[in-house]
Every structure is written in C-alpha cells, then in structure tokens.
C-alpha cells in the first residue's frame, strides 16, 4: 500500500474484520484507505452519510482503493442510540432514492423473507445442527412468512451496531461500514436497532422521530427480522467454534419466541 501511495506515506492497519482498511499519513495529511470498498461509496459521501470520499484508484491486480477523509471523532455510546439524530440519519438513508437507484443499477436483488429463510436452511444443512431453539426459531419464521411480506424496499445497512455510528469533531453523525448493506424491508434495520438499544416503552417516541407510526405490521416484521438475524449470527459464531456466544443466542431466540 505504501508503494502505491508513493514516498513519504506511512500506512498502518485500521483494524476491522476484513483486514482491508488502513490509516495513511503524510505529514499532517491523514486519510482512511479501504481496499474494494462499497461500490456506492460516492453516493454515501455526496449525501453526507459517510466521511468525504477524496479519491478512488484501481490497482494493477484489479483491486480498487478508496481514500476518505479521516475524521477525528468517536463512536457513539450504546446509550446515545436513543437520540433523535440517530433516528433522523437512519430515516435519511431509508428514504434516499439515490442510494436505492444505485443499488438497483448494480443488480442488488431485495433480501426478502423467502431469501432469508432459504439462506438459513442452506447454512443449517451445511452445519447439520440439531437444536430445539433453532428448530423453534425456523418454525416461527416459516409460520409467519406470509404475514411479514412487505412491498416497500429501502437500502438497509444491516449492521447498525453503535460502533458503526461515528461523531466527528464538529458533532456531525456518520454511519460507516457499508460492506453488508442490501435492499430490504426497513423493519430489518429498525428491529435490530430498537431491540438492541431502545426500551420497548420508548419505541413509539423514537419511531416518531424517524417518521414512522408503530403499528401491528411493523411490530410483527421487526420481530421476525430480529429472530432471523439472531439465528444467522448464531450460525456465524457456530462456524467459528464460538460456542459460548452460540449458547447465549439460543437463550435469546427462546426468549424472543416467548414474546
């Protein structure tokens, strides 16, 4: 990476699961580099959803490197996910026609409940897991499949963990790490956020800031997506032999099905 940038640049890994992100510095200039980042980074940057995109270059091996402004900020705390600015930014993302058009142009097919269930079935066959909590969860997903079908699709981030929300030095809020984003029901993002961070008694008020009424349909869809995502994350940990997390998620799925 240093050879690619030229003399005077110092590059170090920025961490993260993929190992494809770096911090590069030359004098006082600091940039965030990523290899093969999201193809719609330019749209996200133009809308102020991620830090400013500075340039994009293609390497000889075909990889694409992007450089973004390196913000001097911090991650949101879990308690700050209740704030109106989080609801407003997520609403902006979900209502962005530019983002949705970009996804469609690159051939991104909607992640529907049917697709989710089929993906989970394939993973379960691969791992050959027999477990009551997972079987009960899958039975619930199948039973409610027709109920949760929703025709309104938006661009969903799919990993709204508070660590992905960044405040810069000017208190501007960004949502970073778009590698897992897809087109789906907004209830996917909303369910994960509300179940993880917002007490149920405050859901209605938080959604009002987002611009959505909490009706029966949204409740059912959010619950369905949280169950499906919990099974998916369980399988992710299972594939890495992280059995303590697997057991915790089994208990969580069981508790969700009792609601």
TrEMBL record:
Aminoglycoside phosphotransferase domain span:
40-224
Q: Which InterPro entries match?
A: Aminoglycoside_PTrfase, CcrZ_PhaseVar_Mediator, Kinase-like_dom_sf
List, alphabetically, the Pfam families matched: APH (PF01636)
**Protein name in UniProt:** Phosphotransferase family protein
The scientific name of the source species is: Halalkalibacter kiskunsagensis
> What does the organism's lineage look like at the top?
Bacteria, Bacillati, Bacillota, Bacilli, Bacillales
């Amino acid at each position: 990476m240093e050879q690619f940038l030229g003399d005077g640049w110092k590059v170090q890994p920025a961490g993260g699961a993929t190992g494809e992100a770096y911090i590069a510095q030359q004098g006082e200039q600091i940039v965030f580099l990523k290899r093969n980042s999201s193809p719609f980074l330019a749209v996200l940057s133009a809308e102020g959803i991620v830090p400013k995109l500075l340039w994009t270059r293609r390497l000889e091996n075909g990889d694409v490197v992007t450089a973004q402004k390196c913000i001097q900020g911090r991650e949101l705390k879990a308690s700050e996910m209740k704030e109106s600015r989080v609801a407003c930014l997520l609403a902006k993302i979900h209502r962005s026609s530019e983002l949705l058009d970009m996804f469609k142009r690159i051939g991104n097919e909607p992640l529907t409940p049917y697709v989710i269930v089929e993906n989970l079935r394939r993973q379960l066959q691969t791992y050959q897991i027999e477990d009551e909590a997972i079987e009960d969860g899958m039975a619930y997903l199948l039973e409610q499949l027709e109920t949760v079908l929703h025709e309104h699709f938006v661009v969903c981030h799919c990993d709204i963990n508070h660590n992905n929300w960044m405040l810069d030095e000017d208190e501007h809020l960004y949502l970073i790490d778009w590698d897992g984003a897809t087109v789906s029901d907004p209830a996917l993002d909303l369910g994960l956020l509300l179940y993880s961070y917002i007490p149920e008694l405050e859901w209605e008020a938080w959604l009002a800031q987002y611009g959505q009424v909490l009706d029966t349909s949204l409740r059912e869809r959010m619950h369905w997506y949280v169950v499906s995502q919990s099974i998916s994350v369980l399988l992710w940990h299972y594939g890495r032999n992280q059995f303590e997390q697997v057991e915790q998620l089994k208990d969580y799925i069981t508790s969700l099905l009792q609601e």
